[in-house]
């Protein structure tokens, strides 16, 4: 028998989840030499994705989140890259590298019904990786966060050459892609980040035109300063990953007919209701004719509409070095809770993933 | 010589304008028997329109309003219904009833250049009124506020049968039209108002499904209560005339894929910046996939796109009694400042106009 550790949601957190209290590592055993279920699979987990939406799934049912919460006392779930150890399914053979939404555990036993489904239906797909790119990219730039950035930037942001885009959480999984796509479209790009190292990275490595650190400068002041430095009148597209004070700052500095792509509000999701930030610049939406639009990557006119285009272009652009991807890897299921909370707090630098085992 | 009184902006107001201080009546004289300017007109003013956007024009230049402010020590300007006393223009003859943007004064002297222009270019048009409707309707349901309601409801709100619309300032110039149009489209309609008389009016006279008085009930509670009473899950379209706390309440109770038509924020426009209301429910924009869109009736895809359709349909619907219009008339240029401030404070009941003289 082999030990099979998993990350369990033990309690509904109130603020940031607390490792050892809300999130626990639990161990069970698995017989890797046993036959897989009839028509099913046994999988070994290599990489798991950390994404901000997971905080929304740690809320009580009907708390207003857009998807069902994780049940208590069960493992946290997200996209993963796995290897087929044994297969009784005609769709897979031993050593296939697959992608799918799975429990945060070292191994997975998959029944026939699930093994028959594609990844977007809750099952698995063999990874389609013609250029032999690093597999964990398929959890980031080539996965949900990349598709999120790609679809919403084009569908809502409507990038236009010469215009100015501001993106918050700019070194994060979505932000780094949004900014690089906007640069490719000939936009001026400003990013906000939470550390000096990240600020340097997005300017020096990713070629953003300007950046500020929201922890060392008030967002309204930092954004205004950088706009002046790069000779931009205001913001045409604000790609909002954080909400709160940075949204307010952006609204105050938008150009007429600006677009706000509301992707997330990670600055607000772990706050108690009474601590929520009140956005004061909403009256400017009228006179400036702003559009603010929220979306989820699974909406039909978002991710599904852009899936093929995103895979084709992004694989090529990464291979050609046109798009650079930074990932932040937490090692070992033992450290998975800390990695998850660190991502929620913005401590990761680049797309956050958990490495469960060597691939 | 005849006395010609006018309403003058004497000072930039800080909160609500103060009659006798910020807004003054000034008198001059005019010779009504003199010939009009070569190619020009002399006009007598009958009705003038009061609209919330006028508060934005009492701000200092570059204060972020979307149009140029009124210069100090000159008359306030807005749309009016006037009679031609004498004409040297081929476009007009004596006793024509015309519409155009004019000074708040009893008489107007118009030069040739301006007399040659249409109303939407700063000049005048002879009123096109085939059904002989009350002329002051052309300042309301058949004028800018009606076109505002019509164009934005269809362009942004996208009314759909069976869905629920909530409109604030529901007995006002725009709100009463929005609500009745939505009823025509088969929507459930909820309105908020600032008095019991207005609440009764929109339910009993206009046929709204439900209403609450935001002065006697917290908007979040009132809206929730009325939604329950009419058996609606939430709000699909929020038509926002007021911003602030009611916007926050609506966001909290929107259905997925809801639309917010941002028409105005009259609750906020006369506040000092430090008193501005902070909207706390903005994070819900993401998960609910909301769209919030601001507009100005003059935007090409708004008023201009719908002008013909609006005139044709609305004239017919008013003639046929399908759309009811309530107007709030202040009498006499002497009382024009009080009428303007009353409108800004929501004291009017229906579309606010100033009657300067009998037509």
Pick out its properties:
homodimer; alpha/beta; seven-stranded mixed beta sheet; six-stranded parallel beta sheet; 26% helix; 26% strand; globular; GroES-like_sf (chains A, B); ER (chains A, B); NADP-dependent oxidoreductase (chains A, B); oxidoreductase (chains A, B)
Shape of chain A: globular
Average pLDDT metric of chain A: 95
Q: What is the terminal separation of chain A in angstroms?
A: 21 Å
Low-confidence sequence ranges of chain A:
none
Largest interface, C-beta closer than 8 angstroms, per-chain residues: A-B, 35 and 35 residues
Query: Approximately how much helix is present in the residues of chain A?
Result: 25-40%
- How many beta-strand elements of chain A? 16
Structural class of chain A: alpha/beta
Radius of gyration of chain A: 21 Å
Give the amount of beta strand of chain A, in percent: 25-35%
User: What string gives the helices and strands of chain A in order?
Assistant: EEEHEEEEHEHEHEHEHEHEHEHEHE
Main pleated-sheet profile of chain A: 7 strands, mixed
Oligomer: homodimer
Q: Enumerate how many helices of chain A there are, as a single number.
A: 10
């Amino acid at each position: 028998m082999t030990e099979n550790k998993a990350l369990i949601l033990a309690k509904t957190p109130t603020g940031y989840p607390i490792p050892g209290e809300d999130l626990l590592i639990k161990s069970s055993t698995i017989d890797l030499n046993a036959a897989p279920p009839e028509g099913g699979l046994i999988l070994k987990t290599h990489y798991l994705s950390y994404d901000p939406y997971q905080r929304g799934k740690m809320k009580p049912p009907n708390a207003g989140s857009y998807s069902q919460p994780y049940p208590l006392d069960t493992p946290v779930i997200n996209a993963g890259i796995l290897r087929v150890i044994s297969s009784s399914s005609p769709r897979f053979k031993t050593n296939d590298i697959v992608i799918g939404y799975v429990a945060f555990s070292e191994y997975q036993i998959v029944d026939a019904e699930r093994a028959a489904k594609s990844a977007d239906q809750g099952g698995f797909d063999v990874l389609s990786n013609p250029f032999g790119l690093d597999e964990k990219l398929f959890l980031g730039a080539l996965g949900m966060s990349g598709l999120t950035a790609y679809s919403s930037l084009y569908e809502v942001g409507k990038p236009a050459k010469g215009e100015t885009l501001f993106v918050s959480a700019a070194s994060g999984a979505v932000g780094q892609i949004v900014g690089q796509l906007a640069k490719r479209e000939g936009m001026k790009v400003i990013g906000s980040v939470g550390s000096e190292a990240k600020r340097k990275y997005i300017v020096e490595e990713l070629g953003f035109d300007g950046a500020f650190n929201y922890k060392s400068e008030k967002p309204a002041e930092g954004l205004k300063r950088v706009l002046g430095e790069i000779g931009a009148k205001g913001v045409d597209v604000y790609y909002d990953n954080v909400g709160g004070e940075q949204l307010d700052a952006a609204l105050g500095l938008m150009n007429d007919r600006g677009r706000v792509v509301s992707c997330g509000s990670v600055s607000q999701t772990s706050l108690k209701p009474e601590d929520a930030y009140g956005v004061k610049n909403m009256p400017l939406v009228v006179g400036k004719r702003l559009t603010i639009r929220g979306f989820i990557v699974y909406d039909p006119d978002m991710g599904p509409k852009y899936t093929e285009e995103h895979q084709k272009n992004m694989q090529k652009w990464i291979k050609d070095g046109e798009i650079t991807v930074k990932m932040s890897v937490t090692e070992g299921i033992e450290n998975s809770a800390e990695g998850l909370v660190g991502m929620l707090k913005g401590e990761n630098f680049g797309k956050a993933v958990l490495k469960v085992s060597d691939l």
